[in-house]
Amino acid sequence: MASGNSAIRGSRVGAGPMGEQDRGFHADRVAVSYWDAQGNETVRYFAASLPDEEIPEVIDSPSTGLPAGRDRENPPSVSKLEPYKTHLAYVKERRTEDEAAALLDDALTQLRARRGQAPKD
């Protein structure tokens, strides 16, 4: 015979006077489908008593992270903004040597003008 367990045989751990129906597991629910730009469907469940205005029109798709809407034919478009820039994106934005020299000359001219010094050529 095993000992050291205080649970009564056949009882569930955590079971008490409040049953599942009191916790809302059996509450009336309505299923709402959302689709993202790649055609993935996500189903979310909301309480049936919730007004339609409080059910969100757009959510983030858990499978792709893209926005998902309730209209299957016209899902939200993919965002054009990059969440972060890669090293190559920064390399593409680098200026040419001539542009960099012109910017440096302009900055030095402005700095010397603030200090009251004449530019040296």
From TrEMBL:
Q: Which UniProt keywords apply?
A: Transcription, Transcription regulation
The record's Gene3D superfamilies line, in alphabetical order, gives: RNA polymerase-binding protein A (2.20.28.270)
Q: What is known about its subunit structure? A: Forms a complex with the RNAP catalytic core and with free principal sigma factors.
Protein function: Binds to RNA polymerase (RNAP), stimulating transcription from principal, but not alternative sigma factor promoters.
* Keyword Transcription regulation belongs to the record: yes
Q: Which protein are we looking at? A: RNA polymerase-binding protein RbpA
The gene is rbpA
Similarity section: Belongs to the RNA polymerase-binding protein RbpA family.
A Pfam family of the record is: RbpA
Which portions of the sequence form the region Disordered? 1-21, 56-81
